[in-house]
């Protein structure tokens, strides 16, 4: 978001600078045009004045001629007046023309020529006067002189006419250039203006759109602020902002509520906050706040506050420095009320302690069962065997029977104790999971049962297993219990066969797993051809001390399969039994793939 | 650091015997493991000195004729189990009486009388010991060992191993491996 | 030139068990010399005495006051001069893991105390015989593991 706005402002800036440049350009062009216009009118005036002066020179020359002629005819010096004035005026005009032709070398040259011609003409006038002084008008020389003067006059007229014409031509040419310039410039200006208008339109559009966006995000911010406010109330959070530059402090509304006060009911300062802090924690918190100023990062800090009504609440705080893009530094802090969490934790701790106590008692029981109970029983049995060996000849028939009965009872008791022990050992907390070769564990179990397997000629087939993360001793025990269970409940009319298959399954694909904890499971199926069982007992057979058969038919304590179930539970797996009387039993084991 | 060694006890004993006999300057010929033919008559003192010297190596001079025969039976069995693969196919009883020139009944009784154990048990013990060596030193699988030691099946070997030692072959392997690790940790 | 006696030591705090043990050896036809100690401390005191005769087989009960069988086992295995001694753990039942642990720590034999006297005799005779085999036939003692 910030980069987008930054990009936009760049766009608008560039439009602004382009527009400013265009306006400057238009100004420059207009200035040049006006300058051209004034130059052109100046040229016009100059040309006009030049023409006038030239015409005037000629008319002065004519005046002089007329004066001269009058004098020649009348010999009255009165007529010489226009002649003299004419001469003088010619000189004036020349001065004027020189001034006007300052920047025009062609004109200057022409003027020089004209000057020579005029001087020549004046010479003829003088000569004519000399003839008049003698009054010899019929003299051939006078006539010739007169004629030459007239001829020269014609030349001058032509010269002046030529000069005026060339001057006019020059004017026309220059005017034409200016005119064509002036004709093109407005179109160009118009186009440029149009372009900058378009640009400005775009910029305007952009600005309007941005404004809308800013408004929308402002609204969002407002909503966010409100929802943050709400979530602070729900989650028992509060926050504060400390502006380092202005050293001002601001609490959020909910922080006041956490302190048990109305929002913004007093000035938000560090000092006012410290008034609520539990005296035992005040020093620690002050230290942390000082650290925060230097480190600019506050670790989690735990402390208690006391509300005005005396309620003690537990707070957890965190703070971190925030630097805005313009370099302003603010410390942002969050505080959460963790009283409920701490209370729950305390309850949980109490429960855990109780559980630990129970577990300790259970292990103590385990020890009693394993050592203290076994020992006296063993001694009873050993002394019984001593009695039987040494003293049996001294006992009556009844006595011997009793001894036999005691022996049987103690044997059964031993079996029970051993199995119970095995069962409680599978409960031990210190069982370690290891990635184990299941094939090896099965092999070990088979080796343990090697004698009975070869006695029964039993056939055991198994798939190849992958390595699985298990408690190795327990899985070996599982194999051992399941195989010996199958061998124990074998059918009398056939050789026992046990098939162990392995597959990897997806929990969702298997209808047996109702509440899977992991998405994939190892599935191991034990199938035997023994006496089987009625499926209504499929769950009961895993219950401790539960037996489907009479003690006299099949010896056993009803613990073996309970141990299997316990082992599988320790592995977060499942075990199911499925039986068909006289056909066989199937045990399916699921171990989670981790 | 720890080294795992494999001994050929026969060769070691032979070597020690040879060196000792040379040391004592006794002209001799080693016939088989446990039997030395002296090529000269030794005085009582020299024999005594030689005997006490051998005692340091836990080698005893067996004088008794019965003991000699028992020792011979043992030698034949050890040889049979550890070295000579082909003789494994024969029945041990026939092989023993053929090799030693006595009836099996006589040998069997004699053996039990002197050693408190039967020839059969001794053979099993030796075979299991050999199995242990093969498991640990040669890393052979049970199937390979069963074949090598002429057992009818792996199950038979497993059962015999378990009956003799009380533990399964795989447990045996696991324990020895763990014990080596344990000792390594102890010395480190 | 065989030694006249096989030397046996048992450390066990239980009086009945010591009685069964000595009785069993009395009835066996092997010529043995059996010594018993009430706990691990007495045992170690004896073994550490220069003049003491080392047993061929040492039987250790695991649960003893003052010094347990495992502690004795550890001490013995760390002392070089005891390395020829076969060590038998003689105890009430334990878990498979615990049994393996004693083997790993260096025990050669694990005996679960039997329930009747006949079995006890058989077990003890087997231990002595097999140990004798190892002793006399130069078998590798590192591979001597026996569970009864």
The CA-CA distance between the termini of chain C, in Å, is: 31 Å
- The CATH topology of chain C corresponds to Rossmann fold
- Shape designation of chain B: globular
Classified by CATH, the class of chain C is Alpha Beta
- Most extensive contact: B-C, 29 and 25 residues
- Helix share bin of chain B: 55-70%
Number of helices of chain C: 5
**Weakly predicted, low-confidence segments of chain C:** none
Whole-number count of domains of chain C? 1
Produce the secondary structure layout.
The complex is a heterotrimer of chains A (594), B (188) and C (148).
Chain A: H1 2-74, H2 80-100, H3 105-134, H4 140-234, E1 237-243, E2 248-251, H5 253-258, H6 270-274, H7 279-295, E3 297-306, E4 312-323, E5 329-337, H8 339-372, H9 374-391, H10 397-425, E6 434-437, H11 438-448, H12 450-456, E7 459-462, E8 467-470, H13 472-488, E9 497-506, E10 520-528, H14 560-570, E11 574-580, E12 584-592
Parallel strand pairs in A: 7-9
Antiparallel strand pairs in A: 1-2, 1-5, 3-4, 4-5, 6-8, 9-10, 10-12, 11-12
Helix pairs in contact in A: 1-2, 1-3, 1-4, 2-3, 3-4, 8-10, 9-10, 11-13, 13-14
Chain B: H1 9-23, E1 28-32, E2 35-38, H2 44-55, H3 65-82, H4 92-100, H5 104-115, H6 119-136, H7 142-148, H8 154-165, H9 169-187
Antiparallel strand pairs in B: 1-2
Helix pairs in contact in B: 3-4, 3-5, 3-6, 6-8, 7-8
Chain C: E1 6-11, H1 15-27, E2 32-37, H2 40-48, E3 57-60, H3 69-78, E4 86-91, H4 96-104, E5 109-112, H5 117-136, E6 146-147
What features would you describe in this structure?
The complex is a heterotrimer of chains A (594), B (188) and C (148). The mean pLDDT of chain A is 83. The longest helix of chain A has 95 residues, at 140-234. Chain A folds into five domains: 2-203, Four Helix Bundle (Hemerythrin (Met), subunit A) (Up-down Bundle); 236-337, Beta-Lactamase, CATH 3.30.450.20; 344-372; 373-425; 436-592, 2-Layer Sandwich (Heat Shock Protein 90). Chain A has helices at residues 2-74, 80-100, 105-134, 140-234, 253-258, 270-274, 279-295, 339-372, 374-391, 397-425, 438-448, 450-456, 472-488, 560-570; strands at residues 237-243, 248-251, 297-306, 312-323, 329-337, 434-437, 459-462, 467-470, 497-506, 520-528, 574-580, 584-592. In chain A, strand 11 and strand 12 form a beta hairpin. In chain A, helix 1 (2-74) runs antiparallel to helix 2, helix 2 (80-100) packs antiparallel against helix 3 (105-134) and helix 8 runs antiparallel to helix 10 (397-425). Chain A contains 14 helices and twelve strands. The radius of gyration of chain B is 20 Å and the shape is globular. The mean pLDDT of chain B is 80. By secondary structure, chain C is an alpha/beta fold. Chain C has one domain (6-147): Response regulator (Rossmann fold, 3-Layer(aba) Sandwich). Chain C is 41% helix and 19% strand. The chains are: A alpha+beta (594), B mainly alpha (188), C alpha/beta (148).
């Amino acid at each position: 978001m910030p980069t987008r706005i930054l990009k936009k402002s760049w766009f608008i800036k560039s439009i602004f600078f382009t527009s400013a440049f265009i306006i400057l350009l238009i100004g420059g062009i207009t200035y040049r045009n006006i300058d051209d216009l004034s130059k052109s009118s100046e040229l016009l005036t100059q040309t006009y004045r030049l023409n006038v002066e030239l015409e005037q020179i000629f008319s002065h020359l004519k005046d002089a001629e007329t004066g001269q002629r009058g004098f020649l005819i009348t010999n009255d010096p009165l007529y010489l007046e226009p002649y003299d004035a004419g001469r003088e005026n010619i000189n004036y005009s020349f001065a004027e023309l020189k001034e006007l032709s300052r920047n025009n070398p062609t004109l200057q040259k022409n003027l020089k020529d004209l000057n020579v011609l005029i001087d020549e003409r004046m010479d003829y006038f003088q000569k004519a006067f000399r003839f008049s002084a003698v009054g010899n008008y019929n003299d051939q020389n006078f006539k010739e002189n007169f004629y030459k003067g007239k001829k020269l006059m014609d030349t001058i007229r032509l010269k002046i006419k030529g000069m005026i014409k060339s001057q006019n031509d020059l004017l026309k040419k220059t005017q034409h250039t200016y005119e064509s310039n002036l004709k093109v410039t407005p179109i160009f200006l118009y186009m440029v203006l149009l372009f900058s208008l378009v640009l400005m339109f775009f910029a305007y559009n952009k600005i309007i759109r941005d404004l809308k966006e800013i408004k929308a995000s402002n609204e969002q911010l407002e909503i966010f602020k409100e929802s943050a406010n709400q979530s602070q109330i729900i989650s028992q959070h509060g926050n504060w902002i400390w502006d380092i530059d202005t050293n001002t402090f601001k609490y959020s509304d909910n922080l006041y509520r956490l302190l048990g006060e109305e929002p913004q009911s007093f000035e938000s300062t560090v000092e006012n906050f410290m008034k609520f802090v539990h005296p035992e924690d005040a020093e620690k918190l002050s230290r942390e706040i000082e650290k925060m100023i230097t480190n600019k990062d506050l670790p989690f800090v735990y402390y208690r506050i006391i509300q005005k009504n005396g309620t003690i609440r537990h707070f957890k705080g965190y703070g971190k420095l925030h630097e805005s893009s313009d370099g302003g530094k603010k410390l942002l802090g969050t505080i959460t009320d963790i009283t409920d969490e701490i209370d729950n934790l305390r309850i949980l701790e109490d429960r855990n302690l109780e559980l630990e106590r129970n577990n300790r008692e259970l292990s103590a029981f385990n020890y009693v069962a394993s050592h203290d109970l076994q020992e006296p029983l063993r001694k009873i049995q050993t002394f019984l065997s001593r009695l039987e060996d040494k003293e049996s000849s001294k006992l009556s028939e009844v006595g011997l029977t009793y001894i036999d009965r005691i022996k049987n009872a103690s044997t059964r008791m031993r079996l029970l104790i051993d199995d119970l022990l095995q069962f409680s050992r599978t409960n031990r907390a210190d069982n370690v999971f290891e990635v184990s070769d299941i094939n090896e564990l099965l092999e070990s179990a088979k080796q343990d049962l090697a004698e009975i397997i070869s006695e029964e000629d039993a056939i055991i087939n198994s798939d190849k297993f992958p390595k699985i993360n298990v408690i190795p001793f327990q899985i070996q025990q599982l194999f051992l219990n399941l195989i010996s269970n199958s061998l124990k409940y074998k059918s009398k009319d056939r050789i026992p066969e046990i098939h162990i298959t392995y597959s990897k399954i997806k929990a969702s694909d298997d209808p047996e797993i109702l509440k899977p904890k992991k998405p994939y499971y190892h599935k191991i199926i034990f199938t035997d051809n023994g006496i089987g069982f009625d499926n209504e007992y499929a769950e009961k057979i895993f219950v401790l001390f539960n037996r489907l058969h009479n003690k006299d038919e099949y010896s056993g304590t009803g613990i073996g399969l309970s141990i299997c179930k316990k082992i599988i539970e320790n592995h977060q797996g499942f075990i199911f039994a499925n039986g068909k009387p006289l056909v066989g039993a199937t045990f399916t084991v699921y171990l989670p793939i981790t | 650091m720890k080294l795992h060694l494999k001994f050929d006890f026969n060769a070691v004993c032979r070597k020690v015997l040879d060196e000792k006999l040379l040391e004592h300057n006794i002209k001799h010929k080693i016939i088989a493991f446990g039997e030395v033919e002296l090529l000269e008559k030794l005085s009582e003192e020299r024999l005594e000195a030689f005997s006490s010297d051998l005692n340091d190596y836990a080698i005893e001079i067996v004088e008794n004729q019965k003991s000699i025969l028992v020792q011979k039976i043992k030698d034949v069995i050890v040889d049979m189990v550890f070295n000579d693969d082909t003789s494994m196919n024969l029945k041990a009883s026939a092989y023993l009486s053929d090799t030693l020139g006595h009836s099996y009944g006589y040998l069997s009784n004699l053996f039990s009388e002197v050693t408190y154990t039967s020839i059969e048990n001794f053979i099993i013990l030796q075979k299991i010991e050999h199995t242990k060596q093969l498991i640990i030193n040669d890393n052979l699988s049970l199937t390979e060992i069963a074949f090598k030691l002429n057992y009818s099946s792996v199950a038979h070997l497993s059962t015999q191993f378990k009956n003799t030692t009380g533990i399964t072959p795989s447990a045996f392997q696991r324990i020895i491996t763990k014990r080596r690790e344990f000792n390594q940790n102890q010395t480190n | 030139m065989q030694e006249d006696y096989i030397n046996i030591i048992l450390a066990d705090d239980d009086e009945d068990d010591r009685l069964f043990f000595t009785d069993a050896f009395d009835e066996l036809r092997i010529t043995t010399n059996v010594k018993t100690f009430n706990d691990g401390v007495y045992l170690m005191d004896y073994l550490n005495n220069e003049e003491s005769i080392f047993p061929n087989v040492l039987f250790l009960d695991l649960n003893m006051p003052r010094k347990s069988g495992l502690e004795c086992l550890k001490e013995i295995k760390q002392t070089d001069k005891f390395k020829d001694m076969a060590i038998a753990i003689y105890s009430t039942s334990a878990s498979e893991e615990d049994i393996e642990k004693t083997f790993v720590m260096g025990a050669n034999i694990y005996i679960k105390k039997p329930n009747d006297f006949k079995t006890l005799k058989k077990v003890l005779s087997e231990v002595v015989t097999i140990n004798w085999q190892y002793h006399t036939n130069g078998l590798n003692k590192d591979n001597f593991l026996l569970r009864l």
